[in-house]
Design brief:
Blueprint (H helix, E strand, L loop, with lengths): L25 E5 L6 H10 L1 H12 L5 E7 L13 E4 L1 H4 L3 E7 H15 L10 H4 L9 H24 L8 H16 L4 H15 L8 H4 L6 H15 L6 H4 L5 H5 L1 H16 L42 E6 L13 E2 L2 E5 L3 E6 L8 E4 L3 E7 L8 E5 L4 E6 L7 E7 L42 E2 L3 E4 L9 E8 L8 E7 L5 E7 L5 E8 L5 E9 L2 E12 L15 H68 L1
Parallel strand pairs: 1-2, 2-4, 5-8, 7-13, 15-21
Antiparallel strand pairs: 3-4, 5-6, 8-11, 9-10, 9-12, 12-13, 14-16, 16-19, 17-18, 17-20, 20-21
Helix pairs in contact: 4-6, 4-8, 6-7, 6-8, 7-8, 7-13, 8-10, 10-13
InterPro entries: BlueCu_1, Cupredoxin, DUF4344, ET_Amicyanin
Protein name: Plastocyanin
Pfam family, one: Copper-bind
């Protein structure tokens, strides 16, 4: 795969680790890792990459250096891109060398698939046991087969590198040609049957992880062909190169006879084409290919559980659906006891449980336990990243389950009998009402992981939703939940967990647009009053939780109009009130007038008194003057 990383500086080795030479060479670099330190040691014990780099330097000329790096890719890439291998040309490294990157996450992923392949009752469901392990030969371990697959993948990435550094005129899809170059080198230059074994194990891996069910349309536009197509191409190359050693592919029906008729010619053209392209760039002295190193001893595997019988087809669901997700990275120990979210599911009879593989490794959902083995109730077989498996539970009981290839992944499904409709109780004779029983304690919710906002956001349009008074049970009002997500949205969905006021939970699968936007509407009704909680999960990451309250609107009152209509009683009462008010007003006016009259009368009395006094004074003065005048007349 061609590599377009966010930052090449995260994986470019220090200058002291690799000295860039004038003549191009292949160099090996192990990027330090803490998480996969044990795996790094194990890979180094294979001595595989060391021997391949040595052989390539003796085989090919290079115009510049090519570094073969092994790294913990999740340390610099999104988790969904870490289970892979890449080639980065100089235009991306920004240096005078290009890189082939093999991710440790990919090695673990391929080991899981090969472990499933060699487990009795698992891989032999799809591929005959006589094909997986040929009679009369020692059956390779899962670790041996993992190295074989990495052998094919490494030379696939080398195909990208040689197309780039030699500027080869490849007219068709580069990914298809890279598969062809890997097959050419492994089948033409490997010692013994090593190359054929690598091609066959790579083919088994593609067959076990192939599925076109519910495949999004974007998958058909990918630069890689579908896994099932890659299986048939590799099977044809193997048969075309050595029909006698690969006749079992036809005998068991894995390779169609019509396709097989042309495989020898297909392989002949493959060899001719790549020999034409590569010969001018090969060293003049061609060394003997390095023998395939003997892998380190395989650790003693855990006891193989007894294969589960084929379960009886489930009935048509009549209840709800609950989705369970496994956390990314659950293919490595450390996620327990919550490798599945939720790890315990409680449902009713005929409800369906859907398991979604959010990890980047293949898993199984197998009823039973790691210690006792499968119990035969259900078994998904191996299903890859992004795929689903579902079971309808027609009977009540407790169902433990686990992953066969990762036994630390365990979960539980509790199935209860559906609650019957309540029967109305008869009316009792009058008696003192007993105290009502205390309501049951609500279930304790599982702890919610802290939101990882770098993966997305979640919002609610309002914190309170008022629903209409006496709204019908079939009606309802809705509230919008919306947000954005980061990363590749092709063929992906966001999952919401809705918790209602009564504690009931349900899982919603929400589509995401190409630009990363999502929205949905939650409809509520009058019998579900209280607080609702909605949490969102994107690619296994909790991106946040929102809450909103649902309340009843106040009971509607009679709406007044500009001219309200009143009853006769209301009209009479109003008239009486008005008349009383008028009488009080008139009485007040009368009192006011009377008061004014009294004031006027008082003023007139005072005026009259002053006039009388003046008149009396004037009379007295006149009488006095008269007496004086009389006195004067008498005296003369």
């Amino acid at each position: 795969m061609l590599f377009v990383p966010p930052s090449m500086q995260a994986i470019i080795p220090e200058v002291t680790a690799v000295t860039v030479q004038d003549r191009g060479d292949f160099h090996l670099y192990y990027k330090p890792t803490n998480k996969y330190a044990n795996l790094e040691t194990q890979v180094q014990s294979w001595d595989y990459f060391e021997s391949q780099v040595e052989w390539l330097n003796q085989k090919f000329k290079l115009p510049h250096d090519v570094i073969v790096g092994l790294a913990e890719c999740a340390s610099f890439l999104p988790p969904e891109d870490s289970v892979n291998a890449y080639y980065a040309p100089r235009s991306l490294t920004g240096e005078n060398f290009s890189m082939i990157i093999i991710c440790y996450e990919l090695i673990l992923h391929e080991y899981d698939i090969m472990k499933y392949l060699v487990t009795p009752g698992k891989g032999d469901r799809y591929i005959s046991a006589n094909v997986i392990c040929k009679s009369g030969q020692n059956c390779p371990s899962a670790e041996d087969r993992t190295r074989n697959i990495i052998d094919f993948i490494f030379y696939h990435e080398l195909g990208h590198a040689l197309i780039d550094v030699y500027d080869l005129p490849i007219p068709t899809a580069e990914e298809v040609n890279a598969d062809g170059l890997s097959a050419y080198i492994l089948l033409e230059f490997s010692a013994g049957s090593g190359g054929n074994d690598s091609i066959r194990d790579a083919a088994w891996g593609y067959l076990l992880t192939s599925s076109v069910k519910d495949l999004p349309i974007e998958a058909y536009a990918d630069t890689h062909t579908l896994n099932i197509q890659r299986f048939f191409n590799l099977a044809c190359f193997a048969y075309g190169s050595d029909p006698s050693s690969n006749r079992d592919l036809i005998q068991t029906g894995l390779l169609d006879r019509d396709r097989a008729k042309g495989c020898a010619q297909e392989y002949k053209k493959l060899v001719s084409s790549w020999k034409h392209h590569l010969t001018p760039n090969m060293q003049t002295s061609i060394p003997t290919p390095a023998p395939t190193p003997t892998p380190a001893p395989t650790p003693t595997p855990a006891p193989t559980p007894t294969p589960a019988p084929t379960p009886t087809p489930a009935p048509t669901p009549t209840g709800k659906e609950v989705t369970v997700q496994n956390v990314p990275g659950s293919s490595s120990p450390g996620c327990e006891p919550n490798c599945f979210i939720p790890s315990v599911v409680t449902i009713n009879v005929n409800d369906k449980v859907i398991w979604e593989n959010n990890d980047y490794a293949a898993h199984t959902i197998t009823s039973g336990s790691p210690t006792a083995g499968p119990d035969g109730a259900f078994d998904s077989s191996l299903f890859g990243s992004g795929y689903f498996y579902s079971v309808i539970f027609p009977h009540e009981g407790i169902y433990d389950y686990f992953c066969v290839v990762h036994p630390w992944m365990q979960g539980k499904v509790i199935v209860k009998a559906s609650s019957p409709a309540p029967t109305p109780a008869p009316t009792p004779a009058p008696s003192p009402a007993p105290a009502p029983p205390a309501p049951p304690a609500p279930p304790t919710p599982a702890p919610t992981p802290a939101p990882d906002t770098q993966w997305g956001t979640i919002s609610v349009e309002k914190s309170k939703l008022e629903i209409s008074y006496r709204i019908s049970d079939t009606g309802g009002e809705k509230i919008k939940i919306f947000g954005t997500v980061e990363g590749d949205t092709r063929g992906s969905s966001l999952y919401m967990t809705l918790t209602e006021p009564d504690g009931k939970t349900s899982t919603l699968k929400i589509p995401v647009t190409k630009v990363g936007y999502y929205e949905t509407f939650i409809v509520v009704c009058c019998n579900n009053i209280g607080e609702y909680t909605v949490s969102a999960s994107w690619k296994g990451h909790n991106i946040g939780t929102v809450t909103f309250d649902v309340v009843l609107k106040p009971k509607p009152q009679t709406t007044s109009t500009p001219a309200p209509t009143t009853t006769e009683d209301e009209q009479t009462e109003d008239q009486q009130q008005k008349q009383k008010s008028e009488r009080q007003k008139q009485k007040s006016e009368q009192q006011k007038q009377k008061s004014e009259q009294q004031k006027q009368k008082s003023k007139r009395g005072e005026s009259k008194s002053r006039t009388t006094q003046a008149e009396e004074s004037a009379v007295d003065q006149h009488e006095t003057k008269k007496k004086d005048s009389d006195c004067k007349r008498k005296c003369r």
